[in-house]
Design a protein that fits this description.
heterodimer; A: alpha/beta; Rossmann fold; 9-stranded mixed sheet; two-stranded antiparallel sheet; 13 strands; 26% helix; B: 317 residues; alpha/beta; 5-stranded parallel sheet; 8 helices; elongated
């Protein structure tokens, strides 16, 4: 079984983002970038499946600017076998990403495609589901547990009401929740080894799909600020304030 | 121009966020039709027809729709989409799972999780866990939009009598099979719609200690929330998680107990009307959004909180 894992380069989750003064977006220059957190879970799961003997190859793919190569390289350092970078400029919408991934899937013919359930930059939560639609494959979104049984996947999904379990045929798309596993850290020897693993570079424009923007970003602003609160000195004062000042209890 | 609202339900009743999504749909155009896809879902279809904002109900009923599998739902909506300019659903796990599958099939770039309708093609949505707001304009002919339920009021649920039209089902998608759903049943208010939410974090130290949160929630008729750290540590189940990848809540009162206030958690609660933080670390980021901060050991403060509440003559329900 061959597993393709899509990884995205985003602003690190610990960074407090800043909106650009001209309201054209957020500041990304000189900001720490990392792999989108649930994409780390996706890689981890694929590598674990390979280690258990149920997969033969793990391929990491990223779509983005040249520097997204670092994100692919990190996936190689934790166990992916080879990488693909599809180079694009500027903001690329989930619909375009899924069309590019569809081309990669048609070429690589993986049995499974894994990715994070949501990117923490645009918070869209769309790509996996869109790719499933384009391929007419089953989708298991928000996965917190994956079991391979007789060539099928039994996936536990985190839903608002609790948990849901579905069984899907392969090939399939799985979007991963942060609770799926605990991503490993890359060891130094593995980081060194990853430098020798191949990364194929492609240009998005060569893949023959329409990736033009369908959504115009008119402006990006800071959200309204909350006015500063107060510290209370005792529980009695807190309850009195909630009762008589805020009038919420 | 007409708007198609995808109703969320359990085959008997509408899920509460369908009312919020109806309000959002009506802000785009007043000609809102609601589609209800399910199995033996006549009661839910009738409930939808009683929303005064809904002008027509389309009911699609078949056994393979019983468990809301997106692969079965999407073709129905794609077929109906020919008659509509906009397709709307809630940005909860139901809508998040389904809408992109519809949008891709329609070759539309979806707009997720809007908090405001500015014009029929322009919307406001949070990005970066709510640390920035983007105003975005869709250039697609057909618009697929999911709405953040807590950013729109629930609409009236009675007084309407829209006609119900039955439409024949699409084929079953045989490659996905529903197995089971484990719902956590509770008599408490739902987390997404509760007036008061009491949440615990890693500071609770154990699942057993969460009974402090439960007692406080009982007293205030509150829903129980949790930070991701508390869910990851196994103190409480995932359906309680508040944050960027959990639920977004906007209660009148949010009480954060033993929660440090990571960016990802603040994303799910910082729009609450009044925020209380109880934490022994005075530097915890949660205090930056709290209206009332109490720097104290929660294991002393929460029992005192209960004592003080017991002294009150009345507590709002």
């Amino acid at each position: 079984m061959k597993i393709l894992v899509a990884v995205k380069r985003v602003i690190d989750y610990n960074v407090q983002i800043r909106v650009k003064e001209d309201n054209s977006g957020v500041v990304t220059e000189n900001v720490k970038m990392s792999t989108n957190p649930p994409d780390d879970n996706a890689i981890e799961e694929a590598v674990k499946i390979k280690e258990s003997g149920k997969a033969t190859e793990v391929i990491a793919v990223s779509i983005g600017e040249e520097k997204a190569q670092e994100t692919v390289r990190k996936a190689l350092a934790v166990g992916a076998d080879r990488g693909i970078l599809v180079k694009t400029d500027g903001i690329i919408e989930p619909l375009a990403v899924s069309k590019l991934l569809q081309k990669i899937v048609e070429k690589e013919k993986p049995d499974l495609v894994f990715m994070g359930k949501q990117a923490i930059d645009d918070d869209c939560n769309q790509t996996g589901q869109m790719l499933s639609a384009l391929l007419d494959w089953p989708q298991a979104t928000f996965a917190s547990k994956i079991e391979i049984k007789d060539g099928k996947l039994e996936v536990t999904r985190e839903i608002d009401e609790g948990l849901e379990t579905i069984e899907i045929n392969v090939p399939a798309i799985v979007t991963c929740d942060l609770r799926l596993n605990e991503p490993r850290y890359a060891s130094l020897p593995n980081i060194m080894k990853a430098k020798k693993k191949p990364i194929e570079q492609l240009n998005a424009s060569d893949l023959g799909v329409d990736i033009s923007s369908r959504i115009e970003q008119i402006k990006v602003e800071e959200p309204p600020k909350r006015k500063a609160g107060i510290k209370v000195s005792s529980v009695a004062e807190l309850v009195q304030k909630l009762k008589n000042e805020a009038k919420v209890i | 121009m007409s708007v198609l609202l995808i109703a969320e339900h359990n085959n008997k009743e509408l899920k509460p966020f369908t009312l919020n999504a109806s309000t959002a749909a009506s802000k785009i155009d007043t000609d809102v039709h609601g589609v209800i896809i399910g199995h033996n879902c006549d009661e839910a279809a009738k409930a939808l027809s009683e929303l005064p904002l809904i002008k027509k109900v389309i009911q699609v009923d078949a056994a393979h729709y019983e468990n809301f599998v997106a692969e079965n739902f999407a073709p129905v909506i794609v077929k109906l989409a020919a008659n509509y300019s906009h397709i709307i659903s809630s940005a909860n796990t139901f809508g998040k799972n389904l809408m992109p599958r519809v949008a891709a099939a329609l070759d539309t770039s979806q707009i997720s999780d809007i908090i405001k309708v500015i014009t029929t093609d322009t919307f406001l949505r949070p990005i970066y866990a709510g640390n920035a707001f983007a105003t975005v304009k869709s250039k697609d002919a057909k618009k697929c939009v999911t709405i953040r339920p807590t950013s729109f009021e629930a609409c009236e649920s009675s007084g309407g009598s829209a006609p119900i039209e039955k439409v024949s089902p699409s084929e079953e998608f045989a490659k996905t099979k529903f197995i089971k759903r484990e719902e956590v049943k509770s008599d408490r208010p739902e987390l997404g719609t509760a007036r008061v939410v009491v949440s615990g974090g890693r500071g609770m130290q154990s699942g057993d200690n969460f009974k402090l949160i439960t007692s406080l929630a009982d007293k205030l008729n509150a829903a129980i929330g949790a930070s991701r750290a508390a869910v990851d540590a196994g103190y409480i189940s995932n359906d309680h998680q508040v944050g960027q990848t959990g639920k977004v809540v906007v209660p009148d009162l949010y009480i954060a107990v033993g929660i440090s206030g990571a960016i990802q958690h603040l994303a799910g609660m910082k729009e609450s009307k009044v925020i209380v933080a109880i934490n022994k670390d005075g530097e915890a980021p949660i205090f930056s959004v709290a209206d009332y901060g109490l720097e104290a050991d929660l294991f002393e403060a929460v029992p005192q909180f209960l004592d003080e509440l017991n002294k009150l003559n009345t507590i709002q329900k």
